Amino acid sequence: MATAPRPRTSTRDPEELTGRLTAWLGTRLPGAKAAGVTVPASNGMSSETLLFDIDHPRAPVTSCVLRLAADPAAYTVFPAYDMARQYRTLRLVAEHTDVPVPRVLWLEEDPGPLGAPFFVMARVAGRVPPDVMPYTYEGGWLHGASDTEREHLEAATVGLLARLHDQVPVSRAGFLALPGQGEALHRHVTAQRAYYAWVTDGLARSPLIEAAFDRLAQLWPREPGEPVLTWGDARIGNIVYDGFEPVAVLDWEMAALAPREVDLGWTIYLHRFFHDLTTGSGQRGLPGFLRRDRVEARYARLTGHTPRDMDFYTLYAALRHAIVMLRIAYRQAYFGEVAVPADPDTLILHHDSLRAMVQGTYWTG
Fold first, then answer.
1. Distance CA 108, CA 243 (A)
2. What is the per-residue pLDDT across 235-257, written as a single tens digit (0 to 9) for each?
3. At what angle do helices 310-334 and 207-219 cross, to 10 degrees?
4. CA 160, CA 158: separation in Å to the nearest integer?
5. In angstroms, how far is CA 210 from the centroid of its own chain?
């Protein structure tokens, strides 16, 4: 993690984007200028982020974040980027819940101004548990926090999921239903199979990922339960905290109608992913933080819904993460940053833990 080059995230020119953004902003707020436009070092591997200020006496806010659909020339992580869907999701959550989300300002669906659709939202001050270096590593602010502070952050984070799932009327979230037939979980997994087929089209397939799909079929829940609005990328690395209190929930591009456990499995496993990386490097990590049993019990107390079939849902989270990682690795190979090995499974950073989950030994071993 310390020496691997960070994968390329864009082929766009920041200076050109600045000029085009200023021109567009003037159409929404005559006389306004975009100032201090920057691309954060933590720019994600999917949609792109620009930070900028609005120079105008009547600006609705002064500090903004722009989320721009991924550059099609940059070997995108996902096959499509529906920025209007993300914008609608943020507005829906803000309207019906007390889950903190950034205030959305404008949606631009015309790709002309910046080369792709985008939306603008208010920037929220705070700090985010980092992916690089992972927040589980020594020296980071969350690792250096007290047990009481981490307990507060964990409780507040699980509370976010509980309120999101309980408060959003499913009747208002029909636009988040995934295509296809059958119940929501079946549609969700079918979409992941389609995504995997897209990732491996013309490239080496992953025997491990395919074994994980087979194992999912064996573990399929007898009663998946009613769908709710799931965040999709439900992890602490997508939350802005003021101290240890959540103040903004970010990155809604994976939101969908699905069982509650889809989010819970992702939250639990994505923490374990970073913890496993840390212990694999010889550090202690955060073994008592976001433990599976604690998250499940806390969620049950808050909602009255006891999480079910969590072996299925944590495996599903690890599988979904593996497909994303395989795409990112193939993307790096496309740009000449890595070579594709004979065994494509080794491109999946957590291949050992995913294999253990397929074998049923991960949570007991």
1. 33
2. 999 999 999 999 999 999 999 99
3. 160
4. 5
5. 23
Over range 17-40, report the average pLDDT.
89
DSSP states of 72-100 as a string?
GGG--SSS---HHHHHHHHHHHHHH----
State the pLDDT at residue 17: 81
Encoding tokens for residue 216?
């999912």
Tokens of 331: 């993307």
Phi, psi of 37 (to 5 degrees): -70, 125
Q: Tell me the pLDDT of the chain averaged across its residues.
A: 93
First to last CA, the chain: 25
Interior CA angle at 312 toward 307 and 313, to 5°? Answer: 60
- Helix intervals (H) in 128-259: 147-167, 184-199, 207-219
Task: Pull the structure tokens for residue 332.
Answer: 């790096």
Cβ proximity of 72 and 11 under 8 Å: no
The alpha carbon torsion through 202, 203, 207, 210 (nearest 10 deg) reads -50
Please, are residues 75 and 326 in contact by the beta-carbon 8 Å criterion? no
Q: Radius of gyration of the chain from Cα atoms?
A: 20
Would you name the residues annotated as active-site residues? 233
Q: Which residues pair with 240 in a beta bridge?
A: 248
Asked whether 347 and 329 are in contact (CB, 8 A), the reply is: yes
Which pairs count as long-range contacts for 69-73, CB under 8 Å and 24+ apart, including other chains? 69/111, 69/116, 69/117, 69/118, 70/46, 70/116, 71/10, 71/11, 71/12, 71/115, 71/116, 72/116, 73/11
Q: Give CA separation, 347 vs 5, 112, 133, 208, 333, in Å.
A: 15, 36, 19, 11, 11
**Backbone dihedral angles phi then psi of residue 5, each to the nearest 5 degrees:** -65, 140
- Helices 260-280 and 147-167: angle between axes, nearest 10 degrees: 150
Pick from 280, 156, 165: which is nearest to 225 by CA?
Answer: 165
The verdict on pTM exceeding 0.70 is yes
Contacts of 182 (CB under 8 A, 6+ apart): none
Rounded to 5 degrees, φ, ψ at 346 are -75, -10
The first and second tokens of residue 213, run together, are 């799909």
Q: List phi, psi (to 5°) of 270.
A: -65, -30
Q: Using CA atoms, how far apart are residues 216 and 315, in angstroms rounded to an integer?
A: 7
Model confidence at 172: pLDDT above 60: yes
